[in-house]
Write a structure and sequence with these properties.
Elements (H helix, E strand, L loop, with lengths): L6 E6 L16 H18 L3 E6 L9 H17 L7 E3 L8 H5 L2 H16 L4 H10 L12 H8 L12 E6 L5 E6 L41 E7 L10 H9 L2 E4 L6 E4 L4 E4 L14 E10 L2 E12 L4 E4 L11 E6 L16 E3 L1 H11 L3 H10 L10 H11 L2 H10 L2
Parallel strand pairs: 1-2, 2-3, 4-14, 5-6, 6-7, 7-9
Antiparallel strand pairs: 1-10, 4-5, 8-9, 10-11, 11-12, 11-13
């Protein structure tokens, strides 16, 4: 019997959809079908109360719009199977979600990325200040996000996109009467480009090596009372240029989910649990091992209990099964525990302004509003004439609804449109 005190997630990374994905020559069609069968036949026998799908980057192969549209179709298929919807998908950007052609054609973007790397190398404490100047400069505002335009359009309705005013996102889930689980979305691709595998002189790095990514200080979550952070970031900490941020990350984020390396590993100490997800659709070769995870967690007596169900593809039988090397003996999962006594419940909470706070209702509004036809948009505009619909983003709409206190009424009208 499944304990309903647990809350669960499906975690995957590095799906790498190409424009040719799904054609008659796509070998990875078998992987996706195997994952669907695994979820259909096995997941609900082991976990329950599934809250969402977590994708740690690289939904696409080269950051193209068509690739991300295929990814959305696949994610939609998974959510329907689990009786969820796309509003229950949470994702972060990966280096393969970057359109490198945008950077190759823009000398100014290359210069901005080079400047960020130089500052991170020489005086990392100034990085956030320099980043603010770049992002707030009216002449180039948002230019750093141009290479991930297609990702941002894909993630807009999921509220997992990145903007100058909202460079991170968060979503809370109640664990019990005391503790809250907070998903925290990061961006490790600020300088990712066609130069990722080149050294400072422009020469190719040895196979398997790559330059380090820039992470600014403000991306590390701020501690809050009784909040347990579960972070999503594409590049693991070994890929970060500023190694000093790693100790901050470990001291603040109890659960850390990563992708990128295509290697499944579960690393735990007294402070945190880091799950480096394998790739669902890795590049084929001698180390070709498709992987994904189920994750369940709960809090009992100020202790966080986490069960990780690592799933590995058996190419001989064409099915996913438990990854024996990463499971406890004779178990389908690996169980880990962390003490929570260090989380105070007496201090005042501080609101973090430069973060997109995702709620259940805002997520559903964004999801439903983003798929409306032109006639349906006119219908909604007539129902709520006091809203400025000329706002450039869904964030603007959601802020207006929150300020006017009409989120529930707005959602109700959206639900009436079928």
């Amino acid at each position: 019997m499944i304990d309903n005190e647990w809350i669960s997630f499906i975690q995957m990374s590095d799906i790498h959809f190409k424009s040719s994905s799904g054609d008659p020559y796509d070998l990875d069609t078998e992987l996706r079908s195997a994952m669907i069968r695994d979820l259909k036949n096995n997941v609900l026998r082991h976990i329950g109360n599934i809250k969402g799908i977590l994708v740690c980057g690289d939904l696409a192969f080269s950051g193209q719009k068509g690739e991300l549209e295929i990814a959305k179709e696949f994610l939609n298929e998974i959510t329907l199977l689990l009786e969820l919807s796309l509003k229950d998908v949470f994702c972060v950007v990966g280096n393969h979600d970057v359109d490198q052609n945008v950077i190759k054609r823009s000398h100014i973007i290359e210069l901005l990325q080079s400047e960020l790397k130089k500052v991170d190398d020489t005086d990392a404490d100034k990085l956030d200040s320099i980043l603010r100047k770049i992002q707030k400069d009216v002449h180039i505002q948002g230019l750093l996000y141009k290479p991930i335009d297609n990702y941002n359009q894909f993630a807009d309705s999921l509220l997992c996109n990145y903007t100058v005013d909202k460079p991170n996102w968060e979503r809370d889930f109640e664990l019990n009467e005391k503790y809250t689980l907070r998903l925290w979305g990061m961006n490790s691709t600020l300088i990712s480009s066609h130069k990722d595998h080149l050294d400072e002189e422009g020469n190719w790095l040895p196979y398997g090596e790559e330059r380090k990514m820039v992470i600014n200080n403000k991306q590390i979550p701020e501690p809050q009372d009784n909040v347990i952070y579960m972070t999503l970031c594409h590049h693991p900490t070994k890929c970060w240029n500023n190694e000093r941020l790693v100790s901050m990350m470990d001291g603040r984020a109890k659960l850390q989910l990563y992708g990128h390396k295509h290697i499944q590993s579960i690393d735990a100490n007294e402070q945190r649990i880091a799950i480096n997800s394998g790739a669902l659709q890795p590049e084929r070769g001698k180390d070709w091992i498709p992987l994904y995870n189920w994750i369940s967690l709960k809090v009992v007596d100020n202790e966080l209990i986490v069960k990780i169900f690592p799933r590995i593809f058996n190419n001989v039988i064409g099915s996913f099964e438990r990854d024996v090397k990463n499971c406890d003996t004779e178990k389908e999962y690996k169980e880990l525990r962390l003490k929570l006594d260090g989380l105070s419940d007496k201090q005042c909470k501080k609101e973090k302004k430069l973060v997109r706070k995702i709620t259940t209702i805002s997520k559903e509004i964004a999801y439903r509003y983003s798929v409306l036809s032109q006639s349906d948009l006119k219908y909604i505009a007539n129902k709520f004439p006091g809203i400025n619909y000329d706002e450039d983003t869904l964030d603007g709409l959601l802020i207006q609804l929150q300020e006017k206190g009409i989120e529930e009424k707005f959602l109700e009208q959206l639900k009436n449109i079928e």
